[in-house]
Amino acid sequence: MKNNVPQKSVPQKVNKRIGVIERYFDILPVSSKTPVITLSEGSTPLIKADNLKKILGVNFNLYLKYEGLNPTGSFKDRGMTVAVSKAAELGAKAVICASTGNTSASASAYAVRAGIKSIVVIPEGAIALGKLSQALIHGAEVVAVKGNFDRCLEIVIEICENYDVELVNSINPNRIEGQKTAAYEIAEALGDTPGYQFMPVGNAGNITAYWKGYKELNEKRNLKLPVMMGFQAAGSAPIVEGKIVKDPRTIATAIKIGNPASWKQAESARDESDGVIDKVTDEEILSAWQNLADREGVFVEPASAASFAGLKKYLKEGNFDPDFRGNVVCILTGHGLKDPDRAIDTVSRPPVVEDSVDKVVETAGIK
Ligand code: F0G
User: For residue 103, how far is its CA from the centre of ligand 1 (angstroms)?
Assistant: First the structure.
């Protein structure tokens, strides 16, 4: 019958993707007076990783929470929408952050939408190219400091004490509130909280935020608390070593941090959840990063792969039960395009051939 034939020319209804504040209004410190500064962040996919499950030879369900699909390419956007909206509500003229890159990319994008100036203080030469280009194209005032991230954070904190600028690093509680929504999304997608959550730890705001989210879900909906498995890079592992690392080192520049601002909160998340904060080497990070890309088609920046690297390490060392009956989630915090140099340096360059069909067929191994 004519009426039942789908009409290609009829535009399909497009579902509006709503941002974190609209989606989680009731659990965030916002009111009808808060101007909503959003890029439709959040609602990132929870991807089932069956290829990796097979390689690992495990029986649990393995999921990847791909936070690199947020508007500026990292999980920071969840917190930034709340932090910048609240700054706008208070009439702030400028926001400031210290950053290993992603916070600066996010802060500068949200500040533009709010019509607020953004100031970004970064460690010189230690920011992946993609992130720096984001802050610059969004018109942030970018200042590179001859010092590491920890020093940059000290500087911006002191500036905020003396000048009329709003701090949007994760010590701003609005950042934590926004970022906790990722725990809600995971619980909604699984219909339950996961048994274990593996994630990278840098300045330790994100593990603090997830733990807050899970504790709320436990109190309000009686969902079980997951075990939090946080991973620092071996050359930048102050929480693991129990002391400040003066000269942190790692190829995972996003988590190259020697004195995390939310150190105590990260320890609480670890202890209250019966979890761990441990370290993974750069080699383990890069191997996990490659696995995610060439087995699951998920391209992340190296720091993000610390989560999966941690899971691999625990399985390999016999510290994690491959037959665990439940859901295991690895958080993938940032997109691979943030750090294209790392990918290009790691894989071999493509061969260049004459412009003939035969050459392309032969070189590509087409049979
Ligand atoms: N993964 C990525 C991609 C990050 O950018 C960061 C932190 C982390 C993990 C660690 O999260 O600090 O909450 O423990 N990046 C911050 C920045 C420090 O300035 O962009 P955390």
Answer: 7
Assess contact for 75 and 84: CB atoms under 8 A. no
Q: Which CATH number fits domain 21-73+175-346: 1.10.10.10, 3.50.50.60, 3.40.50.10610, 3.40.50.1100?
A: 3.40.50.1100
Q: Is the CB of 232 under 6 A from ligand 1?
A: no
Picking from 271, 345, 331, 265, the residue whose alpha carbon sits closest to that of residue 303 is 331
CA of 309 to the centre of ligand 1 (A): 16
Ligand 1: which residue has its CA nearest to atom 10?
A: 202
Show the DSSP H helices in the chain as ranges: 20-23, 50-56, 76-89, 102-114, 129-137, 149-162, 173-179, 181-190, 205-221, 238-241, 263-272, 282-296, 306-316, 340-346, 357-364
Fold: same for 21-73+175-346 and 76-171: yes
CB-based contact 304:68 (threshold 8 Å):
yes
C-alpha of residue 293 to centroid of ligand 1, in Å: 20
Q: Return d(Cα 194, Cα 327) in angstroms, integer.
A: 5
Q: Whose CA is nearest to atom 12 of ligand 1?
A: 203
Residue 201 Cα: closest atom of ligand 1:
14
Q: Is the pTM of this model over 0.90?
A: yes
Q: Is the dihedral of CA 284, 301, 206, 16 positive or negative?
A: negative
Cα–Cα dist 273/213, whole Å: 13
| Cβ–Cβ < 8 Å for 127, 101 | yes
Would the pLDDT of 5 be above 70?
Answer: no
Q: Where are the domains of the chain?
A: 21-73+175-346, 76-171
Q: What is the rounded distance in angstroms from the CA atom of residue 145 to the CA atom of residue 348? A: 33
Q: How far apart are CA 36 and CA 234, in angstroms?
A: 39
Taking the centre of ligand 1 as the mean of its atom positions, its distance from the CA of residue 327, in whole angstroms, is 24
Domain spanning 76-171, CATH class: alpha beta
Asked if residue 121 has its Cβ within 6 Å of ligand 1, the reply is no
pLDDT in tens, 192-228: 999 999 999 999 999 999 999 999 999 999 999 999 9
For 12-38, the pLDDT digits (tens) are 666 678 999 999 999 999 999 999 999
